[in-house]
Write a structure and sequence with these properties.
Layout (H helix, E strand, L loop, with lengths): L4 E5 L6 H10 L3 E6 L12 E4 L15 E4 L11 H22 L3 E5 L9 H17 L2 E5 L3 E3 L10 H9 L4 H6 L2 E3 H13 L5 E4 L1 H13 L3
Parallel strand pairs: 1-2, 1-4, 2-3, 4-5, 5-6, 6-9, 7-8
Length: 222
Amino acid sequence: MTAHRVLVTGGTGYIGRPLVRDLVARGHLVRALVRAGSTRKLPAGVEPVIGDALGDFADLVPPSDTLVHLVGTPHPGPHKAKEFRAIDLVSIRSSVAAAKRSGIRHLVYLSVAHPAPAMRAYIEVRKEGEALIRASGLSATILRPWYVLGPGHRWPAVLLPAYWLMEKLPWTRESALRLGLVRLTDMVAALVLAVENPPEGVRFAGVPEIRESARQIRLQPA
């Protein structure tokens, strides 16, 4: 396996912390863009890069082949539309600009499943982020989960029996799979696999592909 030089934005967050930890464990050189007061939140082995993901950080980017963009509004909800545009959209715009100027070859972006009957403001911003990436000419992996189950994010687990039923019925199967729930470990596995398998052009991974990535990681020899 080729060792990658990875820069992660949002590396101290809900998905970012387990991701950078797993990338280090698999032998990759991992750096995380963080503000000065957040370096202590990084797992061992992750090198901090002090900067602001909402600003121009291109000159701070160390030699890297991959940028994983995870910055976003915590616990997104319909009432946070302004935050989505001020944080989520601004940060992906900054990451795209930084990747282009610093010569990064592969951008990994955590988007969201769509179309969907809820979270329209959030989906719209993530779709704008996807459009920025496609227009940039960068090679990219765009992952589209709907909800990631994990510590502090477990309430939709009560819907799992309903999802199971809807996935069995022909007339609800497609939407149930597209808007399915994924576990944090599966999401992290899909991000790891994305880092380790950069595409030519832009590749999309929805919920079924995210779940399959986790299976592939588990099947790999230790």
